[in-house]
């Protein structure tokens, strides 16, 4: 008995020693553990791809917790496997702000108050082009804003840059920054005025929260201002981490300029350690408790109650030669940029038709567009009955949504009043001036019972239901089966009554309405029905 006990004790001691030198065998701290709201951010990897969500995302060689478990390390190695990020020539490991629940990328305007606080240390610069950005406010690239205000280090020169000097000249914070120096920085925007606070004594956040941080304010004394820029713009968001301002070709170029030989095998990287960070929008800090958990993985959530099962899809003009492109990927209930349907309208018809099994009343279609974050897609949606011979356009010349969407986000479009078995999406190209329409997933909503339970009586009742078409509409809508209704009231999105009138007949002029979404309330003696109408 004693011998067995001694063996157990020896094994326990060996295990404790072995585990102490093998931290992978112990539960690791991951970056999300050091984030106030892990749902509120996504990371752009050095290879240009993105990762979201982050709440359970393990340590990576470019995004991990340091040995003392008190900082997130953003590391970018400059080598041939790391390419430039989309819309940039440089490499990054950088967080980008999203809505607090992680559902969409966030975009705000410079009206109101917006604050980001970061405690960090820039710990390493590239060997030859030793430039790096840590913390930034990003604006609308199409308006020439782009990197609106960033904290940038070149050698030992730490300064604020405003879209590379295009918005205003650079503003020096210090000329002798030493790598590894922990510092706090606050970027604050109040109704277009951009303020910056900087400190290396560890007291900035405490003083800022107390309203006594004026001694840390970076002032534009030359122009008599306590702010560094006054500019209004939109499509704005915060970024945190490491945006290394170099790549392989730049390292070669700068090595040549310095009369040195570039060694592609030598260790060469940029690195930032972030100890703490938070954002405030109009007084709400880090989402005020919203978020903090990863959403369910794609394909693991049950379908919506009114989602119709798609039985099949047929693509016309489908891109060939790729194993990850095909019609089945557009309704496999898995949203990913790796598997999708695509066709090029510049060489012929680009369409995909979904079979719902039998005629059904339709309410909405939800589409996940590939590359939704960098381009919009123009398309039509048409519906046909169970014969599939003639398609009627329900939506024409529609652009996908421009702001805040990625491939993970479902974009919904109204099909109210439509009835049919087949739903066709016809692509016309995208805003990147190519003919491609690329779709990762489609969901169709409406009458979703099995075809065997849709009796003749049900179909008859549906055919007699009040309906409006086309929808969206430009000037005139047609009204079907309105004999039981007498008046129609039109309300805008905020609930304001825009118009009230007797139902004019089988059609109605809406040319006087502004573009937008309206609720049409049809009233009769025994019934009231609301219909959503989109005025183009």
Write a short abstract of this structure.
By secondary structure, the protein is mostly beta strands.
CATH T-level topology of the largest domain: Jelly Rolls
> What's the total number of strands?
31
Strand count, sense and closure of the main sheet? 8 strands, antiparallel
How many individual domains? Answer: 3
Assembly of the depicted chains: single chain
CATH C-level of the largest domain: Mainly Beta
* Residue windows where pLDDT falls under 50 for at least 5 positions: 14-26, 455-464
Number of helices: 4
Largest beta sheet: strand ordering? 2-1-5-14-7-8-9-10
- How much beta, percentage-wise? 35-45%
Mean pLDDT across all amino acids = 86
Helix percentage: under 10%
Tell the overall outline. Answer: globular
CATH architecture of the largest domain: Sandwich
Structural class: mainly beta
GO molecular function: hydrolase activity, hydrolyzing O-glycosyl compounds
Pfam families: Alginate_lyase2 (PF08787), F5_F8_type_C (PF00754), Por_Secre_tail (PF18962)
Keywords: Signal
InterPro entries: Alginate_lyase_2, ConA-like_dom_sf, FA58C, Galactose-bd-like_sf, Secre_tail
Features:
single chain, 536 residues, mainly beta, Jelly Rolls, Immunoglobulin-like, 3 domains, 8-stranded antiparallel sheet, 4 helices, 8% helix, 40% strand, globular, signal, FA58C
Task: Write up what this structure looks like.
Residues 1-27 form the signal peptide. This is F5/8 type C domain-containing protein. It comes from Pseudotamlana carrageenivorans. This protein has 536 residues and is mostly beta strands. The protein folds into 3 domains: 23-289, Jelly Rolls, CATH 2.60.120; 307-452, Galactose-binding domain-like (Jelly Rolls, Sandwich), CATH 2.60.120; 466-535, Immunoglobulin-like, CATH 2.60.40.3080. It is 8% helix and 40% strand. The strands form 5 sheets. The chain has an 8-stranded antiparallel sheet, with no helix packed on it. Strands 3, 4, 6, 11, 12, 13, 15 and 16 form an 8-stranded antiparallel sheet that branches. Strand 8 and strand 9 (157-161) form a beta hairpin. The longest helix is centred in the first third of the chain and has 19 residues, at 2-20. The chain starts with a helix and ends with a strand. Residues 14-26 and 455-464 have low confidence and may be disordered.
């Amino acid at each position: 008995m004693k011998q067995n006990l001694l063996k157990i004790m020896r094994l326990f001691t060996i295990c404790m020693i072995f585990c102490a030198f093998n931290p992978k065998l112990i539960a690791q701290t991951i970056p999300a553990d050091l984030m106030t709201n892990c749902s509120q951010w996504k990371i752009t990897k050095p290879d240009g791809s993105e990762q979201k969500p982050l709440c359970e995302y393990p340590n990576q060689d470019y995004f991990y917790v340091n040995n003392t478990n008190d900082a997130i390390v953003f590391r970018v190695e400059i080598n041939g496997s790391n390419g430039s990020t989309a819309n940039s020539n440089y490499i990054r490991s950088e967080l980008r702000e999203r809505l607090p629940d992680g559902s969409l990328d966030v975009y705000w305007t410079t009206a109101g108050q917006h604050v980001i606080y970061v405690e960090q240390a820039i710990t390493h610069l590239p060997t030859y082009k030793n430039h790096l950005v840590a913390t930034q406010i990003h604006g609308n690239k199409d308006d020439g804003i782009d990197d609106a205000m960033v904290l940038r280090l070149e050698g030992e020169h730490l300064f604020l840059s405003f879209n590379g000097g295009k918005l205003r000249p650079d503003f020096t914070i210090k000329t002798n920054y030493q790598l590894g120096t922990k510092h706090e920085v606050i970027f604050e925007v109040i109704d277009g005025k951009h303020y910056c606070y900087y400190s290396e004594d560890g007291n900035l956040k405490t003083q800022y929260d107390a309203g006594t941080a004026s001694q840390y304010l970076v002032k534009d004394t030359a122009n008599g201002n306590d702010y560094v820029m006054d500019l209004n713009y939109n499509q704005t968001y915060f970024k945190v981490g490491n945006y290394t301002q170099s790549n392989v070709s730049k390292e070669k170029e700068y090595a040549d300029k310095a009369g040195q030989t570039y060694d592609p095998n030598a260790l060469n990287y940029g690195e930032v350690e972030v100890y703490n960070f938070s954002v405030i929008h109009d007084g709400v800090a880090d989402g005020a408790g919203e978020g903090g958990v990863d959403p369910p993985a794609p394909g693991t959530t049950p379908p919506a109650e009114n989602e119709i099962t798609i039985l099949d899809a047929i693509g016309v003009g489908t891109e060939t030669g790729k194993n990850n492109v095909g019609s089945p990927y557009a309704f496999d209930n898995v949203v990913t940029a790796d598997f999708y349907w695509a066709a090029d309208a510049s060489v012929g018809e680009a369409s995909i038709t979904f079979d719902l099994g039998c005629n059904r009343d339709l309410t909405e279609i939800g589409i996940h567009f590939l590359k939704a974050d960098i381009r919009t897609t123009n398309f039509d949606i048409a519906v046909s009955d169970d014969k599939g011979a003639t398609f009627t356009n329900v939506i024409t010349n529609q652009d996908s949504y421009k702001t805040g969407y990625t491939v993970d986000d479902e974009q919904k479009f109204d099909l109210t009043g439509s009835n049919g078995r087949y739903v066709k999406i016809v692509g016309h190209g995208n805003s990147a001036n190519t003919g491609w329409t690329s779709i990762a997933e489609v969901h169709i909503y409406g009458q979703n019972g099995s075809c065997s339970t849709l009796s003749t009586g049900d179909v008859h009742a549906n055919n007699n239901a009040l309906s409006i078409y086309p929808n969206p509409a430009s000037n005139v809508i047609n009204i079907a089966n309105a004999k039981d209704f007498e008046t129609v009231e039109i309300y805008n999105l905020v609930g304001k009554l825009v118009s009230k009138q007797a139902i004019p007949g089988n059609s109605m002029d809406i040319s006087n309405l502004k573009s937008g979404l309206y609720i049409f309330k049809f009233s009769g003696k025994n019934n009231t029905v609301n219909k959503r109408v989109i005025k183009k």
